[in-house]
Amino acid sequence: MPTFFEDFSAGQTEEFGAYDVTEEEILQFASQYDPQWFHTDPERAREESIYGGLIASGWHTTAMMMRMLVDEFLSETAALGAKGIDELRWRRPVRPGDTLSLRLTVLETETEGPDRGLVKTRIEVLNDAEVVCSMIALTMFARRDDERDDCGN
Amino acid sequence: MPTFFEDFSAGQTEEFGAYDVTEEEILQFASQYDPQWFHTDPERAREESIYGGLIASGWHTTAMMMRMLVDEFLSETAALGAKGIDELRWRRPVRPGDTLSLRLTVLETETEGPDRGLVKTRIEVLNDAEVVCSMIALTMFARRDDERDDCGN
Question: Which CDD domains match (chains A, B) (predicted)?
């Protein structure tokens, strides 16, 4: 995968990651940030939820996505941070025992001034072959010919 | 604020929440889910980052948003979970010492079958009067005349 803005082009794709989802971590995240009972109470979730059991907070799923993205992709690039996300969709429940991975596809690139450019990437979070979450990320990358110091690298 | 789908209508608005952002929590979240140096290394962030200091992960900001939303809004409604988010934008850095609050505005409501409806809400995360993050949430709510048991409530 590319590292500077100029290295990206539409159509590039890559798959990576293997994040094991545990009940313990679902409960830990939910108790701190999303204490709705279908994320925090395994027994009640099993008996009463429309999902048939405990599921991860959607924001926990995006956090796990980010950890894989940083470890296996962003940390090796001149990423300057993200402007935002479009079309974030939680498509399927994420449950204890799932193993998540990522599929990235570059959709579009656009310069945003002399020192940086914007890359639109489709990010799909997979559990085996099934897409459980998807989004379009708008990420800024430094241009190769820029003064690197200005980019904080 | 409303509790069932039928209680929502476009234009309703509400402000609430007071979430104190600490350096300790920024470092804790980032070390687990977003270990980029401008979220995990206060000294390097101060000296080298384009942001001029340590900032919270954008996904930490959305997690803090969710905690306020659950505590002061969703927990008193017949919410069934969210389909997704449109137009998520991280507009300003979130830093240690900030106090975040939320402004909700109902944009649109739409039935999605006999038992539930979709409510589109603009959520703005504020630091004092400044919007630091915004998004449009697509949340499902049970209809008032539904068999409550089917909704897990």
Answer: YdeM
A150, B57, B92 from A84: Cα distances, Å: 22, 12, 11
The answer to whether the CB of B153 falls within 8 A of the CB of B42 is no
Using 50, 70 and 90 to split pLDDT, how confident is the model at A150?
A: very low
If you measure CA to CA, which chain A residue comes closest to B92? A83
**Fold topology of B5-22+56-142:** Thiol Ester Dehydrase; Chain A (3.10.129)
Q: Which residue has the tokens 């798959």?
A: A15
Give the pLDDT confidence of B34-55 residue by residue, as tens digits.
999 999 999 999 999 889 999 9
With contact defined as beta carbons under 8 Å apart, do B107 and B136 qualify?
yes
**pLDDT tier at A153, thresholds 50, 70, 90:** very low
Sequence-distant (≥ 6) Cβ neighbours of residue B67 within 8 angstroms: A32, A33, A34, A35, B19
Measured CA to CA, the distance from residue A52 to residue A44 in angstroms comes to 9
Give the contacts of B49 (CB within 8 A, at least 6 positions apart): A152, B37, B38, B55
The pTM of the full predicted model, rounded to 2 decimals, is 0.92
* pLDDT single digits (tens) A74-128: 988 888 889 999 999 999 999 999 999 999 999 999 999 889 999 999 999 999 9
Name A136's bridge partners. Answer: A86, A122
pLDDT at B150 over 50: no
Q: Where are the domains of chain A?
A: 5-22+56-142
Q: Does A118 touch chain B (CB under 8 A)?
A: no
User: Is B61's pLDDT higher than 80?
Assistant: yes
Interface of A with B in 1-30 (CB under 8 A): 29
List, as ranges, residues 27-86 from B with C-beta within 8 Å of A.
29, 32-36, 38, 48-51, 57-59, 62-64, 66-67, 70-71, 74-75, 79-86
